[in-house]
Amino acid sequence: MMIQRIFIKLFLWSSLWPLLKGNGKDAVREVFYCYSGTNLKAVRKGNWKLVFPHTYNSNVGSEVGKDGWPGSTIKSKYEGGLYNLRRDPGERYDISREHPGMVSELEGLAAQMRLTLGDSSSGIDGKENRSPSRVNKW
Fold it and tell me: Which residues pair with 131 in a beta bridge?
C-alpha cells in the first residue's frame, strides 16, 4: 500500500506531470527514497546513498529449501551506512565517518520525508499519509 502511495504521489505527479506539461527539465529527480512497506530504508542523492539501520531475513547459515518449500531464515540486523555508489556500487564500504556532512544532509532529507509520508520504524505517521482506497462490495 505504501509503495503505491509513494509511486503515485512522488513519482507520477512530481516526475511525469512537468513532462506532460512540456517542461521536461523539471521531471528530473535529484533525491530518491527507498521504502520497504512503511519503513524508510534509504535515501539517495546523486552518487550518495544513506542506508538506515534495519532488520531483515537472511538465509545465510540456515537450511536450504526442499520440494518447492523455502528454506528457513534468520533475522539479521543491518547497522546502516553511507556509500558512494560511483566508487562502491556494491555498497561494501561504509564511509559515514569520513563524510559526516553528507550523512547530516541525507538525514535531514529523510526527516522531511518522514514528516510527509511517515516511517513506521521511527513511529512517525506522516501528514500526507492516508488509508488506501477501498471499493465497497455490491
Answer: none
pLDDT tens digits, 118-133 = 888 888 888 887 766 7
Torsion angle, CA of 31/36/39/44, rounded to 10 degrees? Answer: -20
Residue of 108, 57, 106 whose CA lies nearest to 83: 106
**Cell numbers that stand for 77 in this block:** 540486523
pTM assigned to the model: 0.70
How many other CB atoms are found less than 10 A from the CB of residue 47? 12
| In the chain, where the domains are located | 2-117
Residue 92 corresponds to which amino acid? R
Q: Do 59 and 72 contact (CB within 8 A), yes or no?
A: yes
Other Cβ atoms within 10 Å of 138 Cβ, number:
3
Q: What is the pLDDT of residues 45-68, one digit of tens each?
A: 999 999 999 888 888 877 888 888
Amino acid in position 79? E
Task: Indicate the CATH number for domain 2-117.
Answer: 3.30.1120.10
In the numeric block, the cell 545465510 is attached to 60
